[in-house]
Design brief:
By secondary structure, this protein is an alpha+beta fold. It has two domains: about 20-95 and about 130-315, 2-Layer Sandwich (BirA Bifunctional Protein, domain 2), CATH 3.30.930; about 100-130, no CATH class. It is built from twelve helices and twelve strands. The chain has helices spanning about 5, 20-25, 45-60, 75-80, 85-90, 105-115, 140-145, 185-205, 225-235, 265-270, 290-300, 310-315; strands at about 30-35, 40, 65-70, 75, 95-100, 125-130, 155-160, 175-185, 215, 240-245, 255-260, 280-285. It has a seven-stranded mixed β-sheet. It has a three-stranded antiparallel β-sheet with strand order 4-6-5. Strands 1-2 form a two-stranded antiparallel ribbon. A hairpin with an 8-residue loop joins strand 10 (about 240-245) and strand 11 (about 255-260). The radius of gyration is 21 Å and the shape is globular. The N and C termini lie far apart (about 45 Å). It binds adenosine-5'-triphosphate (ATP) and zinc ion. The site of adenosine-5'-triphosphate has 20 residues, from strand 8, strand 11, strand 12 and helix 11. This is Aminoacyl-transfer RNA synthetases class-II family profile domain-containing protein. InterPro entries: aa-tRNA-synth_II, aa-tRNA-synth_II/BPL/LPL.
């Protein structure tokens, strides 16, 4: 991989390599390129569709009596370490570094810049890490509150998430939004929650008139050991995805995921059920950008001309 690509910048020659769908999105002003792969601005039209989706997801989850929690797209380094993200997905993580030096250090930094040399080794870790999945910040919060209510709990989260996976596919961004409902409680509660949301996810995609399939999936666990974990995740059917064709000549894209973590997060954070047992957790994740892109792909680049049923589902009829 050349140095530009590993930094997530466009390859020399730029858009010549870009797939046609990305070109069309950029041409219509829906996504605004920044010169970094997977890092885009969004137009008002794109954002309005995303807002409509979020509204539809809120309506779908009204009976969940979820606690709404919003966090900025970052979490403390200690909590991030406890999550064991680095054990499973070191390749995706993003850390925030800042200049913490004195004036001499500043002069060194400026000299590096001036000479076109790497200046990033003049930065120090800030103790803050980018959020990798919207549900991560809530586990330490729930653990600190003490045992869960008798019936368990559902939390509604929405966050920009960072994953270092630069790509020319518009569906694979480095910063994107996940809307999630997260359920904490007994194993039976989580299994029923996930079943309900697998049905509701399909119901939403059908209301949006999108072609879909649901399939068992795995997360991209790192390395040779990771393959074993990924195989076991598939065998135990812990993750399902709702897939929609979006990209040119590529397999369908996961636009929603339905996850059962068993007692993984409960044990890491020491989250307890009301009876003192370790809590099980699960989440349903909606990829906001991917769903907007799926709608643009299947109904055209002008949402004003989408079928009336689709517009009604998005609250824009
Ligand atoms: P867990 O919480 O179990 O780690 P998750 O549900 O939070 O998993 P994923 O299943 O990996 O995380 O992602 C959820 C959704 O986020 C995906 O279905 C997809 O729609 C969206 N998504 C994931 N990666 C990207 C990306 N690089 N660009 C855009 N959207 C993405
Ligand atoms: Zn999650």
């Amino acid at each position: 991989m050349d140095a530009n690509l590993s930094r997530g910048e466009a390859p020399a020659g730029g858009s010549a390599y870009a797939p046609a769908f990305l070109d069309a999105l950029v041409g219509a002003g829906l996504l605004v390129p920044t010169g970094v792969q997977g890092l885009y601005g969004r137009s008002a039209v794109f954002e309005a569709v995303g807002d409509g989706l979020n509204g539809a997801i809120t309506a779908l989850g009204a009976d969940q009596l979820a606690e709404v929690l919003r966090f900025p797209p970052a979490m403390g380094q200690r909590d991030f370490e406890t999550s064991e993200y680095l054990q499973s997905f070191p390749q995706l993580a993003g850390t925030i570094h800042s200049f913490c030096g004195d004036e001499r250090g500043h002069r060194r930094l400026l000299a590096r810049l001036q000479d076109g040399e790497d200046w990033t080794d003049q930065q120090q870790p800030s103790g803050v890490v980018l959020t990798p999945a919207a549900c991560y910040p809530i586990y330490p919060v729930m653990a600190r509150r003490g045992p869960l209510p008798e019936a368990g709990k559902v939390v509604d989260v929405l966050s920009y998430c960072f994953r270092h996976e630069p790509s020319l596919e518009p569906t694979r961004m480095q910063l994107f939004r996940q809307r999630e409902y997260v359920c904490l409680g007994s194993p039976e509660r989580i299994v029923a929650f996930r079943q309900l949301w697998m049905e509701r996810g399909q119901q939403l995609a059908r209301a949006l008139q999108l072609p879909l399939e649901v399939d068992v999936a795995n997360d991209p666990f790192f390395g040779r050991g990771g393959k074993i974990v990924a195989d076991s995740q598939r065998e135990q059917k812990l993750k399902f995805e709702l897939l929609i064709p979006v990209n040119d000549g590529a397999p369908p894209t996961a636009c929603m995921s339905f996850n059962y973590h068993m007692d993984h997060f409960g044990a890491l954070w020491d989250i307890r059920q009301a009876d003192g047992g370790v809590a099980h957790t699960g989440c349903v994740g909606f990829g906001i950008e991917r769903l907007v892109l799926a709608l643009l792909r299947h109904h055209g680049l002008d949402p004003a001309r989408w079928p009336s049923g689709v517009r009604a589902t998005l609250g824009s009829a």
